[in-house]
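Researcher: I'd like a structural prediction for the single chain below. Treat it as a standalone chain; there are no partners to consider.
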Amino acid sequence: MKLGAFSISLNVKDIKVSKQFYEDLGFSVFAGDMERNYLIMKNGETLIGLFQGMFEDNILTFNPGWDQNANPLKSFEDVREVQRQLKDKGIKLDREADESTSGPASIVVVDPDGNPILIDQHV
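Model: Treating it as a single chain, here is the predicted structure.
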């Protein structure tokens, strides 16, 4: 199963403070919008999303169809195929993609320790 580009999405209290902290660690703004309370920070191949007021928990995020620079891949495993494989293994999904559609969609699973995992396809 190929899940795509990986990042962690952090629920932050103050996006400006978090932005400065991660810049001090060597990250730079890769994408996002401070006015909309989210930034994607990058250091080498490592991505961290900073999200203020959008969700409660930190989230492990995978993006099928993207490389670590958010460039579309020519070949990738569609999120609906990932969903089918997870269901075949008996893994419960908290949010499912409509299998009758194509293109952008997302699913959410929660690991045994309560960590949400978002598999979010943008292409």
